[in-house]
Every structure is written in structure tokens, then in C-alpha cells.
Design goal:
- With about 350 residues, the chain is of the alpha/beta class.
- The chain folds into two domains: about 100 residues, Beta-Lactamase (2-Layer Sandwich), CATH 3.30.450; about 210 residues, Rossmann fold (3-Layer(aba) Sandwich).
- Helix content is about 35%, strand content about 25%.
- The chain has a seven-stranded mixed sheet with strand order 9-8-10-11-7-12-13, sandwiched between helices.
- Helix 9 crosses helix 10 and helix 13 runs antiparallel to helix 14.
- The longest helix is centred in the middle third of the chain and has 15 residues.
């Protein structure tokens, strides 16, 4: 039954399957949760065969475990199994077998600039489910198609599986191939890497190692759950104690090459979702701002960098709303400067008189 539900999920272009004991199963399709079965199911017996011995132990000890599951010829799925007040739950996220292109993802074409870098730190940020992994996979595929590099990916779990084209991949999974991101990064530094993908910079140790490797001449791609370039810079610095922050700002100012922040918005016609993005490239001015700890000045850089493709999230939301790709109400909800988007609202919602 699980395989049948997953096949339906893929056929309907859904992103996630939600299964909870005592609750009717649901799928997330174009951002909305919709029921996909008429009654609750026994989730524990359904997911137990997916777990190997190590994963069962982790689940018993921690109450949750991450893993990957594959239906050959259909798709891979990132799986989180967990306990909740009603029993057992799991969410399975679709990972397509075919790596999408940057154009298919509708992200800015200027992102290809990151594929030409030889060293430094590139961050793709956004909330859970905003397409960060897909964007990074597409970038790695561009590099794989063009250049001969050794690319090490460190993930929990492995999502997109890359076949060697021009490049050579080493893909490692936390819990199976290494105990932690920190251990895997230390090991990767001794594996002659050209590029390291860190699935998520979760803690101070991982962030510190990523910055160090980027300074040493390795190209590092990673993700954070932040929603803007300025907030991304602050988050990295704030992870460290005050006595270290000046040093971290200096490291980040030298190593950061760019930040892409993205969120997914439902299309106005209801047929899918499209990313709204914020893109910032490293410049001399940005490096000075980071060293000074003056991230409130970051917004001033977007206007100067417009010709290079740099833009704020609100700029992209405005573009999508003006072209009627997304609804004005959606742009208003996701925007930072609400007053700029009131023109897209019906008169009764914007406060205007008819």
C-alpha cells in the first residue's frame, strides 16, 4: 500500500506523503495538503520494513530517524519516521530520479556563475521544502557536465544520486557512512576535494569547518534555514560566542561568494509552484559590510548589483505578481514591505474605498 500511495504521489506531482497513526493519510500537492485515503492506516507496520538494524536502534533510542527509500524506476524519497502522541508517523518527500535543470526549476540564470567558482562558500537558503536541495543538485549537475572535479557530498540522508559525467562523485550519508557532519567534513578535507556539498550547516562545528575549508581553497556549497542574505550572514556569526565573532566575520568576508534565498509560491492558475528568490553576489562592498558587522547595509547593495542579476526577494515577488504568474495576495503574504504590494489586493483588503 505504501508503494501504491507513493506512485500516486509522483503521478500527481506531489511533494510529500504524510502518514500518522489515527489520521487519514494526506499528500502535499502544489503546496496544499489533500486527503489521499478514506481512513487511517497502521503506519508502524507500514514503515517497519523500511528500517535496517541501525535505523531501528536509532528510532528506539531517539524516537525518530531519517533514511532514504527508493522505488526503482519511479523516484527516491527522503523519509523521516517519528513517534507522536497518537503513535507512529512518517513523512516521505519525493526526490526525482532525474536531476532537474536550472531552467526547469525557474531559478535565476545568473546562478550559473556559482558553477564557475573554484573556491569559497555558496549558500542556498530558505524554509524547509523550498527547493534548496533541487537547486544545489542542478548546480552540481552543471559542473558535472562541464568540468573534471572531485565532488564530495555529505547528506542526511543522500537525496539526489549523481552519476559521474566529467566529474567524480563521492556521496556520503550521515549515520551510515559517517557519524556526523563534523566527522565527515574532517575526513573530506583529506580526500582531495574540489567541491564539498554540506547538506545542512546545523551547528557551530560544521559551520566553522565549512568556513575553514572555503578559506583553504575548496568550493563549499551548503544550506541554511534563513530567508534573506542579511539574515544568513547574521545567523552564521551568531552561532559563535562574542569572543569569536570578529574572527568569524573576517573568515566569512573572505570566503563568502554568494547567497541565494528562495521560497516556493503557488502559481496563479493552480498548476504548480514557482520559486521567488533573493540573489546576492560577493562584492568588495559586501566584504566590508560583513567585517564591520553592518548587515543592515546589505539592502543598499542590490540596486548597485542589478545589472549582474542581484535582487531582493520583494523585487522578485513584485515581478511574479505583475506578470500574474502568482496572485497578488500571495505576493503580499510573502513580502517584507507590505505597502509595496497593496496595489495587487482587492479594494476591500487593501483598505481602499471602491
Amino acid at each position: 500500500m505504501l508503494d501504491a500511495l507513493l506512485q500516486e504521489l509522483v503521478e500527481k506531482a506531489g511533494s510529500d506523503l504524510h502518514l500518522l497513526d489515527g489520521v487519514i493519510p494526506k499528500m502535499r500537492i502544489h503546496g496544499e495538503l489533500v486527503p489521499c485515503w478514506h481512513e487511517p492506516i497502521d503506519v508502524g507496520s507500514m514503515v517497519e520494513p523500511l528500517l535496517d538494524g541501525r535505523q531501528r536502534t536509532l528510532y528506539r533510542e531517539n524516537g525518530e530517524v531519517d533514511l532514504a527509500y527508493e522505488l526503482t524506476g519511479l523516484s527516491r524519497f527522503r523519509v523521516n519516521v517519528f513517534r507522536h502522541h497518537g503513535g507512529v508517523g512518517t513523512v516521505l518527500r519525493t526526490i526525482p530520479n532525474r536531476i532537474p535543470s536550472l531552467s526547469e526549476l525557474c531559478v535565476p540564470v545568473e546562478l550559473e556563475r556559482f558553477a564557475n567558482l573554484q573556491h569559497g562558500l555558496v549558500l542556498v537558503t530558505g524554509p524547509t521544502g523550498s527547493g534548496k536541495s533541487s537547486t544545489l543538485a542542478a548546480l552540481l549537475d552543471v559542473i558535472n557536465s562541464r568540468e573534471s572535479r572531485h565532488i564530495v557530498t555529505i547528506e542526511d540522508p543522500i537525496e539526489f544520486v549523481h552519476e559521474d559525467k566529467q566529474s567524480c562523485f563521492t556521496q556520503r550519508e550521515i549515520g551510515r557512512d559517517s557519524d556526523s557532519f563534523e566527522d565527515a567534513l574532517l575526513s573530506a578535507a583529506r580526500q582531495d576535494p574540489d567541491l564539498i556539498l554540506v547538506g545542512e550547516m546545523r551547528d557551530r562545528e560544521t559551520i566553522g569547518l565549512a568556513l575553514t575549508l572555503a578559506e583553504m581553497g575548496v568550493l563549499v556549497f551548503s544550506t541554511l534555514h534563513t530567508n534573506s542574505a542579511a539574515r544568513t550572514i547574521d545567523r552564521i556569526v551568531e552561532v559563535f560566542g562574542e569572543e569569536q565573532q570578529s574572527h568569524v566575520r573576517a573568515m566569512l568576508s573572505e570566503s563568502l561568494q554568494g547567497v541565494l534565498s528562495q521560497i516556493l509560491c503557488p502559481l496563479a492558475d493552480g498548476t504548480g509552484r514557482v520559486p521567488a528568490t533573493e540573489l546576492l553576489f560577493a562584492t568588495t562592498a559586501l566584504r566590508a559590510i560583513i567585517r564591520e558587522g553592518a548587515t543592515h547595509k546589505v539592502d543598499s547593495l542590490f540596486q548597485a548589483g542589478r545589472s549582474e542579476g542581484m535582487h531582493r526577494l520583494d523585487d522578485d515577488l513584485f515581478r511574479l505578481a505583475k506578470s500574474e504568474t502568482i496572485s497578488g495576495e500571495e505576493a503580499y503574504r510573502k513580502s517584507n514591505d507590505k505597502s509595496r504590494f497593496e496595489r495587487f489586493l482587492p479594494p476591500e483588503e487593501s483598505g481602499e474605498t471602491p
